[in-house]
Each structure stands twice: as structure tokens, then as C-alpha cells.
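Try this one yourself first.
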């Protein structure tokens, strides 16, 4: 039977969260049919001002008892528009989490791993790889812990970069510009960026010329300062220039930066939907788009973005994923499904028990994510991990 003929009737919704460190909580949803099928999604909202779970609960009420045959039923049964999802990030996060859970459940019903379900659903020929190359985001490992301790020195950046290289990663990423925030008092390169450049240079020194260091600016600059910073990053050996300004709010500014920068410009981590990402590439705003499975529409949408854009602009899609292991699992399935050319993000060394959150354990070897056996995502958030480190609830 074709996978498009599978269906799932959700009747149960449960949330869980796991405390990571400081203000970070990994938040998940579980959508079940009252028997043996449970779909999972992550709705961690570190970049958002409000909790996402009440919005998920409202949307899920429209799904209860309905026969779902596609993850997009989340959108149609709630009467949502693309414009709403492109402009409301809380709503996009809730929809993305639910779409992930529905896709997970439907792949289980089809008795296929999610990576194979995605390809079968869209007549994608061939067999996907089961190992997905990652790059190591070292930044979150150096944020404040529960005691408020933080070491953001250049030496600390170098030590974390060295640790990642020794673990087999060939690409790392840092977000070094803590002190910078536009507007600045003077034109040209801001003095506030100097500490960040020292961190970049220290990390690149241990990474070496044959491996890549990506630099995330967290939208801390404006047009003038970003143009002044670009040649400094190029000289320091940066592999790309991520979000010098906010891609979605300052598209025209970012296009001007891309036109003049001599290194690839990446961004759009908070974007929703294939139409938006395609537009950013067609209008020469970015060299690399970074769909995040939590915001872009879930793994089916991420797969479609990757498949469409990579066919037109090779090496243009690298999935954004600084979150928990469930997001990385879903992102790895989507990334493998569209035959990725660029690596997938992984936030390394944030906590040493991260792999224990999933059942079976998250498996990363020599800088590659190994997809688990099993149908759907092939893993779930372990209730024992929730009981030990977090909580569960219903709404």
C-alpha cells in the first residue's frame, strides 16, 4: 500500500520538559492514538518570549478524533495560512512540532524509518545514507551553567574547538560577539567586536587551515559594522558569515552585505516554509539557508526545502539545530533524506548526559550522527530521563 494511504487518529496529547542548564529547557510533545502509535516533536522555545505548549494544545484540539493522512493536516484542519506561519514564530513552532509528531506517527504506520518515509512519500529514488555529517556548535557549551559560571575567553573557545576536532568533527561553529550590539557610537569596525575576533582567531588556530570554523553573529550588527567586519572574518579564516543582521527582519540590508562580503553568508534559522527559503535564494539574500526543524514546518517541510534548493543551488542548505536530541534526530532524518551536501548543526558538550535523553541513546561517531533502527523517528524521549531531570503535563 502506498505510504500516502496511511492514516493516524490522535486522541492524546502530553508535554514534557527536561532542564538542561541555566535557563535552557528542552520541551517536547507526544501525540498518541490511545493504542501503540505515538508521534513526537520538540517545541523548545529559547528564542521566543512565550511558552509554545498552550498554542500546541489549542491546535491539537482540532485534530482529536480526526483521520490524519498527512502532516499538513495540522495546517488545513486549523485553517492556517502561509502568511500567518511566516510571521508568527510561536505559531510556526507549535505547527512544526505537531507536523513532526504526525509525520513520525504516519511513518510508524507505514513501517518505515522517517528518512525512507520522506523519500517514498515524494518518489525520491535511491537509498539514503544512514550516517549524517555534523558540525560542532561549541557555543552553548560555554554559556552560563546553573551556578552562573561562564568562561568566554579566547582560550576557552580554543579548548572547546580542540575537543571537537579530537572527537572527529571537521567543522565547528562559534558565536563570539558577546559584547557587540548595534547601533555603535562610531562607524567602521566596532571596538566591541575586537574580543569576538580574538575568540575566532584562537579557535581557528587549533582547528587549522584544512578544517572549517563557521561564525554566527546572532544579528548583533548593522549594515556599516557588518561590512567592516566581513574582511576581518575572512582574514581570520571564517568559513561563513551567519546572521550579521536578522535575515527575516532586515532582508534588504542582508542582501547588501552578501553582495559585498567575500565569504558565504548564511541565515534564516527562524524562517517557515519552502516558499520563504526559495525566495531568499532567488533574490540573492543568502548563500546558505538554515531551516530549523522546530520553526520551518517540521521534517517533511525541511526535506522539501533541502530537496528543492539543493537541486537548484548546490551546497545551499545546512539545517540549523542548536537544540535537544529529539530535534537533532528529526533533523538528521530530513537531512539524510534530501542527500545533504553541507553538515547538520549539533550543539556539543552542553551536558554530558545528553545522549541519555533518547531511547535508544543518541549515537554520534567521529562527527557523524548514526540514524537508529526502527520505524518513524526510531527513538523517543525516555520517560525515565523526564522523571529524573524534568516534568510532564497535559493542557
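Now uncover the answer:
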Amino acid at each position: 500500500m502506498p505510504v500516502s494511504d496511511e492514516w493516524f487518529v490522535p486522541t492524546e496529547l502530553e508535554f514534557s520538559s527536561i532542564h538542561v542548564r541555566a535557563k535552557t529547557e528542552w520541551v517536547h510533545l507526544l501525540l498518541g492514538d490511545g493504542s501503540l502509535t505515538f508521534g513526537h516533536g520538540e517545541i523548545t522555545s529559547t528564542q521566543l518570549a512565550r511558552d509554545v505548549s498552550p498554542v500546541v494544545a489549542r491546535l491539537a484540539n482540532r485534530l482529536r478524533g480526526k483521520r490524519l493522512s498527512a502532516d499538513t493536516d495540522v495546517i488545513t484542519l486549523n485553517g492556517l495560512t502561509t502568511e500567518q506561519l511566516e510571521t508568527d514564530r510561536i505559531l510556526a513552532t507549535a505547527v512544526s512540532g505537531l507536523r513532526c509528531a504526525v509525520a513520525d506517527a504516519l511513518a510508524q504506520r507505514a513501517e518505515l524509518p522517517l528518512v525512507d518515509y520522506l523519500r517514498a512519500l515524494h518518489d525520491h529514488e535511491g537509498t539514503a545514507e544512514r550516517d549524517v555529517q555534523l558540525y560542532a556548535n561549541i557555543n552553548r557549551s560555554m554559556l552560563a551553567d546553573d551556578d552562573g559560571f561562564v568562561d568566554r575567553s579566547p582560550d576557552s573557545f580554543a579548548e572547546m574547538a580542540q575537543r571537537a576536532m579530537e572527537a572527529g568533527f571537521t567543522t565547528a561553529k562559534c558565536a563570539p560577539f558577546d559584547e557587540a550590539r548595534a547601533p555603535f557610537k562610531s562607524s567602521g569596525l566596532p571596538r566591541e567586536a575586537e574580543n569576538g575576533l580574538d575568540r575566532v582567531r584562537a579557535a581557528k588556530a587549533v582547528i587549522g587551515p584544512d578544517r572549517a570554523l563557521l561564525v554566527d553573529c546572532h544579528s548583533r550588527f548593522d549594515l556599516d559594522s557588518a561590512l567592516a567586519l566581513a574582511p576581518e572574518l575572512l582574514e581570520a579564516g571564517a568559513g561563513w558569515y551567519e546572521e550579521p543582521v536578522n535575515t527575516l527582519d532586515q532582508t534588504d540590508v542582508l542582501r547588501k552585505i552578501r553582495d559585498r562580503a567575500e565569504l558565504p553568508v548564511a541565515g534564516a534559522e527562524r524562517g517557515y516554509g519552502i516558499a520563504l527559503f526559495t525566495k531568499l535564494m532567488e533574490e540573492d539574500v543568502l548563500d546558505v539557508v538554515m531551516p530549523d526543524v522546530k520553526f520551518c514546518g517540521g521534517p517533511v517541510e525541511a526535506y522539501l526545502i533541502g530537496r528543492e534548493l539543493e537541486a537548484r543551488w548546490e551546497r545551499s542548505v545546512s539545517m540549523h539545530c542548536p537544540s535537544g536530541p529529539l530535534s537533532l534526530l528529526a533533523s538528521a532524518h530530513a537531512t539524510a533524506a534530501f542527500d545533504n551536501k553541507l553538515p547538520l548543526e549539533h550543539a556539543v558538550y552542553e551536558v554530558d548526559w545528553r545522549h541519555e535523553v533518547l531511547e535508544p541513546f543518541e549515537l554520534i561517531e567521529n562527527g557523524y550522527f548514526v540514524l537508529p533502527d526502527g520505524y518513524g523517528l526510531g527513538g523517543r524521549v525516555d520517560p525515565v530521563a523526564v522523571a529524573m531531570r524534568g516534568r510532564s503535563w497535559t493542557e
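Discussion: Residues 131-377 form a domain with the TIM Barrel fold (CATH 3.20.20.120). The two ends are 36 Å apart (CA to CA).
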